[in-house]
Amino acid sequence: MKQIINTVNAPAAIGPYSQANMANGILYISGQIPVDPATGKLVEGIEKETHQVMKNLEAILTEAGMTFKNVVKATIFLKSMDDFAVMNDIYASYLDADSYPARETVQVSCLPKNVDIEISMIAHQD
């Protein structure tokens, strides 16, 4: 049975999708962009953007009763691979080195609202 996960501590969906869905103990989190849920405004600059995306993901994980330790897969979309090193350091700072998820990072030509980064995740209940 599918359960919709929704929190006011992450940006509301801007289209016909849910922030996340839980099915059979697996949490599928939609791609998060750097929108501050308190203001509804985009943050700018890859450092601030990456922190905001990770905070948004963390809020959704928390709503589902999970943490970054539950994440088994991450997909990162960057507008420029030149931002990879900065993003990677910030991304890693939110994770436990003993439980890094599988991941891919790809450069794309454009992202929603013309942001520099979007991250989606899949997590599993222990």
From TrEMBL:
GO cellular component assignments: cytosol
Single Gene Ontology MF annotation: deaminase activity
Coiled coil: none
Pfam families: Ribonuc_L-PSP
Stated family: Belongs to the RutC family.
Name of this chain's protein: 2-iminobutanoate/2-iminopropanoate deaminase
Organism: Chryseobacterium oleae
